[in-house]
Amino acid sequence: MIPMPTAPVAGGRAAAIWERFHQYKNGWPSLRSHALRHSLLARVLTSTLALAALTVLGLTSLFLWTYSRDLQSQVTGRAEAMAGFLAGQSQFAMLVGDRGELERLARNAVLSDQVLLVELRDAEAGDRKSVV
After folding, report:
1. Is the Cβ–Cβ distance between 90 and 105 less than 8 Å?
2. Torsion-angle region of residue 58: left (phi > 0), alpha (psi -120 to 50) or beta?
């Protein structure tokens, strides 16, 4: 068993080292808070790092929001273009009532990876044809 050293006589260099040892023996957080309280460089560095982190976080969220909004706009535009194309292709078949041609158009549209559902409506007759 190692004997525990006793406290040195007050007032000397050994007493100051002994006090410092007992002040920091339970961990270093008090040393960090001491440095932040008394060091201008530590305070400036901490505030600069916090400001940089907030800036990076803000710019990242702004970029992701803008990217999401633009992606949604592109997907919507592509869907509208595809719907317009299918409307143009099925217009004559709908006019003459050619169900075989309408089914072929709907089947071909669904076979592409971009379309999940085709629903052809005749606004005048109230007729509806769906292909999943």
Report:
1. yes
2. alpha
Per the structure, the count of domains in the chain is 1
What span, in angstroms and rounded, lies between the C-alpha atoms of 35 and 51?
20
Residue numbers of the domain that contains 62: 26-131
pTM of the predicted structure, to 2 decimals: 0.53
- Whether the Cβ atoms of residue 119 and residue 130 lie closer than 8 Å to each other: yes
pLDDT band at 38 (very low <50, low <70, confident <90, very high): confident
Three-state SS annotation for 2-68:
CCCCCCCCCCCHHHHHHHHHHHHCCCCHHHHHHHHHHCHHHHHHHHHHHHHHHHHHHHHHHHHHHHH
The model's pLDDT over 45-62, given as tens digits with 9 standing for 90+, comes to: 999 999 999 999 999 999
- Cβ neighbour number for residue 84 with a 10 Å cutoff: 10
pLDDT digits (tens, 9 = 90+) for 87-119: 898 888 888 888 899 889 988 888 888 888 888
Residue 77 lies inside a defined structural domain of this protein:
yes
